[in-house]
Request: fold
Amino acid sequence: MPNKTKTASGGKEGALWELQRVLSTEFSKYVLAHPELDVQIPDGAQIVFHMEDNPEFNRWARKVAHSQMAKNQPMIVIKVAGLSPVPPSRLINPQVDLSPAT
Reply:
């Protein structure tokens, strides 16, 4: 049986898999911060992301989701408006102090 995980490390498909990875990671963080959302998702559901302005990703994500689904498995669509920029650093006002050698 063919492996239905990431099949390309680069190119267009690689970029789609990378976006899928980022969305999955960010959604996991979101659910941890908003546990009320977790109760809306049935156990064992196939989750597919839908990006507001990315029809290419949306078609690809549904195709992958359908290829991985078991019979009678529920599908949950998570609609995402976008991703905020990743902050360059979360540190607040770091200071560098030179410590004398001992």
In short: Residues 16 and 56 are 9 Å apart (CA to CA). Helices lie at 11-33, 35-38, 55-68. DSSP finds three helices and two strands in the chain.
